[in-house]
Amino acid sequence: MKRALDSVQQVRHFLRRTMATSPLSAQVKEEILNSPAVKRLGEIFERHGWELRLVGGAVRDIIMGRKPKDIDLASPATPHQILHILESEGIRNIPTGLQHGTVVAAIDHVPYEITTLRIDVNPRGRHTDVQFTDSWLLDAERRDLTINAMSMDLHGRLYDYFNGREHIQQQRVVFVGDADKRIKEDYLRILRYFRFHGRVSQEPIHCQDTLQAIEANAEGLRSVSGERIWSELAKILQCEQAADLVRTMRACNVTQTIGLDHLAGHHLDELARVHRHTTNAMSNLCALLDDPAQLILLVDRWHLSGAERQMGMFLLELRPRLCGLTVQDFENMLVVRASKDPRVVAAAREMVCEAMCYAAADQREIARLHTWEIPSFPLSGKDLKGALPPGPEMGVLLGALKNVWMQSRFTLTQKQLRKAAAMVLSAPQQSDGSPLPTCVVSA
Questions:
Q1: Is 278 exposed, middle or buried (0-12, 13-18, 19+ CB in 10 A)?
Q2: Percent of the chain surpassing pLDDT 90
């Protein structure tokens, strides 16, 4: 666990990594603040006498030069005052979380969350009682990490009460105030720490005091719902430093409390290998598992989706023979799973391409299969009507003919396949009762 550098090493590292606000950051800020919706909201609130700022992840992403996925805003106005402002200006609003002070303003079909400044009272994990305030500082104090506690007014002025920008520049993740207290308010913050470390830092460097607070509170993760655990862990597994993060989590007793108590060194090595080829969360989770039985336990514990379960089972069942598979084998997997339903085809394509990534297949072949037009088997039971009655034997015959067609690299025509079927049906039955001889057809 003790992976923190001594103070001299940290200073050298941070000086080497420290960056001024980049041109990209200024460009992203300009784009967000000058967007029609944000400008309109800012003008409306100013006209009604209220301040409006960007908060949380949106500010963090702007500082990092990344376009925010969501634009969250805050104001000292109460939820009912916010509703009144939006309604009086003809802006569609959705009171999604009035008890927590959040109103959604919908502009051009894009949601913008506007939340009243608040203080968390009596926090209980993800649940807490709230008390509204007009203090931006008190609102910032309730947040988990300094990089998430910044705000920015709509003229571009940054309000940074806890040195969040400096911590971003230094690639550090720091809790607001006392780490032990912040974690006890919501134990999920342990996983959020690692997730944001993966976003902010390029090196596995952690403050020793922070890791000690995490280890001391790791057992608290047992009380967090499985859905919340997986939501955060999936994002950690997509980070560039996923293997290092999971290694540190294991050293802090975190993985042992969330259902990954079996982890050993070879699992982390496999994660590092797989992550070089794919950032898919399920693929990287499979690198940490020994067999499908372990996945089934996590499906129940973390409430994984049907699609996630399907992906995981496919990879784990295929993994023992992945190294021996050829590109043609992967093509055949897609053909076997072909469907008229585009959703089924998309899911099959994702699974097969992920299996190729897991096997470290040629990236050019993976890219080709992403857009490969799956050939259609040119024969059906209707084409053999009269030659064989419908039933199990017809299904066996069609299945065998499809295998022969796939072995031909999908070149056999319907005419050739019908000829092969006729040969089969006219040939003496094999001793084992199979309707298809071992040597059936040549192109």
A1: buried
A2: 74
